[in-house]
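tool_call: predict_structure(chain=1)
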Amino acid sequence: MLLFVIKTTMGIATQLGIILILILVNAFFAAAEIAVVSLSPIRLRTLADQGDRRARMIQKITRDSTRFLATIQVGITLAGFFTSATAASQLSTPLASVLTPWLGNLGPSVSFILVTVIIAFISLVLGELVPKRIGLRNAEAIALNSVGVISWIERLTRPIVRLLSFTTNAVVHLFGVGSLDEEAIIQVEEIKALVEAARLGGTVGVQEERIIHGAVELGFLTARAIMVPRVQIQYVSIGAMMEDVLNIASEFAHTRLPVCQGDLDNVIGVLHVKDLVGLSAKCTENQPQLRELVRPVRFIPETQPLTDLLREMKQNRLHMVIVQDEFGGTAGLVTLEDVLEEIVGEIRDEYDAAEEQAFKRLDDSSGIFNLRESLATVNHELHISLPRDEAATLRGLFLQELDRYPEPGDRLQFDDIQLEVMQEGLRVKIHKRSELDGPES
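tool_result:
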């Protein structure tokens, strides 16, 4: 009897040792995965440039992220499978022999469930959560020290990984999603969460957080969301007198003006106001001489993404483009400043100094904002949550909800938040109702 107990105890100890080793293997893969993924690409590039062989290996194995993640998943899955199989087959039997006198026929089932739950809990804590926490805090050291093993396992499991990658892509195509974009592995919301965590930790400031949010959200916005609407465009006719052109330029303080042949649906170019200085010095009479100064203008559709537009404006040195609707008519215009303001917020120059401030707080739950103010800023200042699914500015939000450009008197209601376009300069009054406000009139 004693010999049987000793053998049984040694058998259980051996099985527990095997399970512990498998959990540690799972922990290794979990820590390595989070460490490699969270390692700064800039730091990795610096190490590689300094001749660190391990950094170059990380760059190589992560070049195909699908294969890298599949390799890690193979390791985690196999470790988890053998852990569960070992526990279920070896540990539940001895426990069942203990429970059967008390539970009868339910003993084996209860023992199986208990072993499964206990092993799953231990595997989750020791094999996933703790290793990932350690991997995040020591990303560089763990990534560099584990890449050799990961690279060896990648070569060993290459046939399986290739099969998994092929099957994954086939299933994804079957659902009509298409291939995964390697650049989109880290999702936008994850980036925002990381930035918010950095702000809470004191690494970045509020303004830096807004800039990063603006840059990330730029790809989801189109020209229609930020363009100056047709009704607000100041333009000159190709046949305008010199004095009239100078008066318009002086009154509105624009550096560039669209030039039209007739009306706004026939924009033929753009006039740089600084070119008028040289022209006015040569003129002895008020004669129209604009045609020779008109420069080509770029036309874009309303649906053009702002990231593409910014790239195009930078490459072609454009500061103004004309936005056309689906019928070819002029819907609005976008300047380079308009695009940049979606990232950094409102840009004010010496001509804006006398204008009303962009934000005026009325009380803790109310304020007056410029229509071009970003929703991120509004939400931050008033501690509210206006929807930011498709719009980045107040004007874009009104455009999204009304399907037209906002006009004085327009109102929007989001739960207890009310927005109203004011008469003065198309500014928006925002008020968050409280229980003390009473019923809405």
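agent: Residues 239 and 325 are 26 Å apart (CA to CA). Proceeding to next step.
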